[in-house]
Fold this sequence. Notes:
The structure is a single chain. About 40% of the residues lie in helices and about 30% in strands. It is α+β, with helices and mostly antiparallel strands and about 130 residues long. A hairpin with a 3-residue loop joins strand 4 (about 80-85) and strand 5 (about 85-95).
Amino acid sequence: MTTPGGFGTEFGRELAELVGAVAGARGAVLLDREGHAIDFAHDGEAITDLDLQIAGAQVSIELLETTAFADRRGMGTPQLLVEGRTGCIMAAVVEPTDVVLLVLVLWRHANLGLAWRRFDHAQGRLAALLRA
């Protein structure tokens, strides 16, 4: 069962919608540039809130480095997919000005095509909330 936002913000509700819409999603977290959670949503039986936030903070380091590399070479904003034996992690910059990052943690059997579509949709909705 998806927890509807760890901190109860509008961001958390969007994250809960993302996690609920993707079969095989374990959790999603929105982070600032230092890797601190702005809000999160997760399946409490699949991942703890602390493990989700740690996973997000760790992958955000690589995402920031990859984004800086891509910017220097005029490649645009990257999206990151980290695959492992038991699952994968998707990550992207939501708001480049203030550097807000979105991370989605998935089980191995998750439908990646659907996950990317829902991830992109959530990224757009979160960006709109950040600009509001």
